[in-house]
Amino acid sequence: MKIDLHCHSSFSDGIFTPLQLLEMAEKERLTIFSITDHDSIKGTAIASRDSVNYSFSYITGIEISARHKQEKIEILGYNFNANNSTFKQSLVKLQNARRDRTHKILAKLQEIGLNIIFDDVIKEIGDASSPGRPHFARALKTKGYVSSIKEAFNEYLAEGRPAYVPRLTIEPEEAIQQINKAKGIAVLPHPLFVEKHDLKKMEELLDMLISWGLKGIEVYYNYENAFSNFPAKKIQKVTKFLLDYCKQNDLLVTGGSDFHGDKGTLGGVSVPKEYILQIQSFFNL
Length: 285
Hints:
This protein is of the alpha/beta class and about 280 residues long. It is built from eleven helices and ten strands. Strand 9, helix 10 (about 230-250) and strand 10 (about 250-255) form a beta-alpha-beta unit.
């Protein structure tokens, strides 16, 4: 059994369309699948509609941009009501902020002498309702300024680099509340990116998120293909801690590849069968 509950389509910063991802999920023989675009439900709505033609179970998904005390704490949402008007309106604000940020990043790149114009970025953005830094990274690679997406981030786009522009986000508490109001469940993705040093601080963070309504943790994640430098022993230690924490606090254990199309593999994260069965039971799949 294989699952992937974290990937991105061309409606945010992924390369492939929802239909292409559905085809790939079928080819990979996934049991459960979800598209979790940044601040957009257009791709997951299409996939949910068309998933009836495939053998796997599909769950609607999203990844909401959030920060707490200047620290990025994104929140995954699953199985929500995509027609909830309040939820949809809250996403429009984030999508508009992403578009405004696009122009600011472009100006910064031009200020440092890179011949990147708006059309170069538009070619990469396509139909995306949530443009992001990966689109600029691909444009920089296409124009020959960098040899890889990783280099584009390291040289220009990462926090602290010349073309970095922070974007409007909401508090994770608000993101969780919006998901819960839309009858979904909120899950913390890639926890090592949130707190990589101190397990005590991670526990305090998780306690806080639970008090706000968090229902699960993405324990299994594709750190190896996410521009991270976490040693295997570190990942194993944190995984054990998170599994124990989920058991003690009755949280759902999930997993995903964070597949965008330019690195890694859809369904490339191994999630033990017992947790896949729990997910099936939780969502009545």
